[in-house]
Amino acid sequence: MSRKTAVLGIIGLVVLGLDIITKQWALATLTPGRSIYPLGEWMPITLAFNRGAAFGLRIGDDPRLVFIPITIVALVILASLYRHAEETDWLRLLSVSLVMSGAVGNLIDRVRWDRGVVDFLGPVDLGFMDWPIFNVADMAITCGAFLLAISFWFEEEPETETATEAGGGGSADGAADGSSDAEPTSDLSGAPSEA
Questions:
Q1: Which end is more exposed in the chain, N or C (fewer Cβ atoms within 10 Å of the end residue's Cβ)?
Q2: Angle in degrees, CA 15, 42, 98, rounded to 5
């Protein structure tokens, strides 16, 4: 088994395992709309069904017709990104694995019924707004997307430095050795120069 397969397999099993187990617990234990506070006031536990996208955004009467194809296309793109990643690029492997695992976790909910994705963590009072209710898969997607953005940023930085060095190298070398591309001017008088 390759290192890339192992990373994706381990992260996928952990994220999907936690997501499925916690959602089953929420469905068996919680009443929709009623919050409990086992973790204190800062993190209520509230069962909710999200038929839309992030933050409860909805599209049409049956959002599954939109979100299931979009999720499948996203997974194909992410799988290609993962396949082309270097085995030593741990940040890229970790980030894509988290996003893919979270996407599959929420996709399972959308496929199995039309009630929507099972959410149960929150809402979290931030002082100026209530952060929407979420789940383990959402956390994996959010963390993975953040790490993926950092991965792309690190990838672009060396390319920018290389381009800068290549663009400024020619004039520096020319100045150092005293060479010049300008053609020599002839003696306008036409007189031969003395040795």
A1: C
A2: 15
Judge contact between 55 and 132, C-beta under 8 A.
Answer: yes
Q: Which of 125, 120, 132 is nearest to 46 (CA)?
A: 120
* Helix, coil or strand: residue 36: strand
Active-site positions read 119, 138
Predicted confidence (pLDDT) per residue in 38-89, tens digit? 988 889 999 999 987 665 566 666 788 889 999 999 999 999 999 999 999 9
Residue 118 near residue 110 (C-beta atoms within 8 A)? no
Query: Which residues, in sequence order, are CB contacts of 68 under 8 Å at separation 6+?
Result: 107, 110, 111
pTM summary value: 0.77
Whole-angstrom Cα distance, residue 59 to residue 40? 34
The neighbour count for residue 28, using CB atoms within 10 Å, is 7
Reading the block at residue 117, the tokens are 């994705």
Structure tokens at 53: 């996208």
- The residue type of 178 is G
CB 96 within 8 A of CB 80: no
- Residue type present at position 173: D
pLDDT tens figures, 106-146: 999 999 998 999 999 999 988 888 889 999 999 999 999 99
**The tokens of 15 are what?**
């994220």
Eight-state DSSP code of residue 56 = G
